[in-house]
């Protein structure tokens, strides 16, 4: 049985201990000690990390009442080693964990919203509430949480029999729990059963910042950050905000308006470019129509070459204006060729016959309806010669 030093003194960063056993498992070594400062993963709180006799402790877990320290190297049973916590990791765990207690308390106290789920990983902390709160209500809960932190109230651990514990004003209590229970109480605020590590004073949490909330089941999921994480989160967002504000030449608080203005400008520009492109394509098609080839029966074949397959659709619409002609539209892009054949509605032509010629000449694929077909092929350097060849074949079609 390992003595859990973290249960009575969460500020203990080191201890001298004896290795009781060390077993190899899947290339790692599971070390058991007579006593430990390492909190094993549990109750939603992540495991501590650190070193044992200089050997890295990657993960700690409890199973069947035994605490296993997962190490990269073996430690001889019977040896005395120094256990040292990675304090930054432990402090982070405690800040997120007690921050979660306090934010849950504030949501419950102010609005009757219960914490029904807790999620904690290296880069996310979130609680699930069983009712929806507005953004304004969440801000109020955030403020109360931080006021309790700034009060620097004591956090006490007591062991009470379940019947005694049930009489306390607890935020949540599982009446099925029996025997001696570990009660964590924040003076004048949260009180609940918990096995995790908590700072002795709320001030150590530093800050709780709600980051976002999203609808989740009947309530919401609230993502937040505490302590150092909250600071780093604010730092990175502030940096992005300042850079963006500088790019927009506005104050940070004006960034949203600045982006909205840019979006409007962009939409107007897109519209202008679209209209100008259409105008240009119309002129080019007109020019191409003036130089149309002729089939043996006299039907004009308009050849239109462009450098963007996005032009094909508007060109097909414009080609509809040439009711007695066949239009062959060809888009040449770096890796891909795209083409279309359209027949004016005064013609009796079947465009599928014409696209077949293009497919054969370019080893491409394509098809469509009688009056309009589209296809494409891989780029080839001799596309001009091949197109010429295809057009000559089309001229001869009956
Ligand atoms: Zn706790």
What does this structure look like?
The chain is α+β, with helices and mostly antiparallel strands and 398 residues long. It has three domains: 3-85, Elongation Factor Tu (Ef-tu), domain 3; 91-242, Threonyl-trna Synthetase, Chain A, domain 2 (Threonyl-tRNA Synthetase, Chain A, domain 2, 2-Layer Sandwich), CATH 3.30.980.10; 292-396, Diaminopimelate Epimerase, Chain A, domain 1. It has eight helices and 21 strands. The strands form five sheets. The chain has a six-stranded antiparallel barrel. The radius of gyration is 36 Å and the shape is elongated. The structure holds zinc ion. Residues 97, 101, 184, 194, 196, 198 line the site of zinc ion.
Helical content (DSSP H or I, runs of 4+): 25-40%
Q: What count of domains describes the coordinates?
A: 3
- CATH H-level homologous superfamily name of the largest domain: Threonyl-trna Synthetase, Chain A, domain 2
- Shape-level CATH architecture of the largest domain: 2-Layer Sandwich
CATH class of the largest domain: Alpha Beta
Rg, Cα atoms, Å: 36 Å
Strand order of the main beta sheet, please?
Answer: 2-3-7-6-5-8
Along the chain, the helix and strand elements come as EEEEEEEEHEEHEHEEEEHHEEHEEHEEH
Cα separation of the termini? 95 Å
Q: Let me know the largest β-sheet.
A: 6 strands, antiparallel, barrel
Count of runs of 4 or more consecutive helical residues: 8
Q: Cofactors and ligands present?
A: zinc ion
Name the beta content range.
25-35%
Q: What is the CATH topology assignment of the largest domain?
A: Threonyl-tRNA Synthetase, Chain A, domain 2
**What is the average of the pLDDT values?**
96
What sort of overall outline do the alpha carbons produce when their principal axes are compared? elongated
How many β strands by DSSP?
Answer: 21
Briefly note the structural class of the backbone: alpha+beta
Low-confidence regions = none
């Amino acid at each position: 049985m390992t003595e859990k030093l973290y249960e009575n003194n969460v500020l203990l960063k080191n201890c001298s201990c004896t290795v009781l056993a060390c077993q190899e498992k899947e290339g790692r070594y599971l070390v058991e000690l007579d006593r430990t400062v390492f909190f094993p993963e549990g109750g939603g709180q992540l495991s501590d990390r650190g070193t044992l006799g200089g050997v890295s402790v990657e993960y700690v877990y409890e199973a069947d009442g035994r605490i296993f320290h997962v190490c990269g190297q073996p430690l001889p049973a019977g040896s005395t080693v120094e256990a040292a916590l990675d304090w930054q990791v432990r402090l982070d765990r405690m800040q997120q964990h007690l921050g979660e207690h306090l934010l849950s308390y504030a949501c419950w106290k102010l609005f009757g919203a219960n914490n029904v789920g807790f999620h904690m990983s290296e880069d996310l902390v979130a609680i699930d509430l069983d009712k929806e709160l507005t953004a304004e209500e969440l801000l109020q809960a955030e403020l109360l949480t931080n006021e309790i932190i700034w009060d620097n109230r004591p956090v006490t651990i007591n062991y009470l029999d379940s019947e005694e514990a049930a009489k306390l004003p607890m935020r949540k209590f599982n009446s099925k729990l029996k025997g001696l229970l570990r009660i964590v109480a924040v003076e004048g605020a949260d009180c609940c059963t918990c096995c995790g590590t908590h700072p002795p004073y709320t001030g150590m949490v530093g800050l709780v910042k709600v980051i976002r909330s999203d609808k989740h089941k009947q309530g919401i999921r609230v993502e937040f950050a505490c302590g150092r994480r909250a600071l780093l989160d604010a730092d990175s967002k502030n940096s992005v905000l300042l850079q963006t504000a500088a790019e927009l030449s506005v104050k940070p608080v004006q960034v949203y308006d600045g982006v909205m203005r840019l979006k409007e400008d962009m939409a107007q520009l897109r519209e202008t470019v679209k209209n100008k492109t259409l105008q240009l394509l119309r002129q080019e098609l007109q020019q191409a129509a003036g130089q149309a080839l002729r089939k043996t029966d006299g039907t004009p074949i308009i050849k239109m070459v462009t450098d963007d397959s996005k032009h094909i659709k508007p060109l097909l619409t414009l080609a509809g204006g040439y009711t007695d002609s066949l239009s062959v539209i060809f888009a040449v892009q770096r890796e891909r060729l795209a083409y279309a054949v359209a027949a004016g509605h005064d013609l009796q032509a079947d465009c599928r016959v014409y696209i077949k010629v293009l497919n054969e000449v370019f080893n491409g694929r394509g098809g469509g309806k009688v009056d309009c077909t589209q296809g494409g092929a891989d780029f080839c350097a001799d596309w001009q010669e091949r197109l010429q060849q295809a057009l000559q074949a089309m001229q001869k079609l009956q």
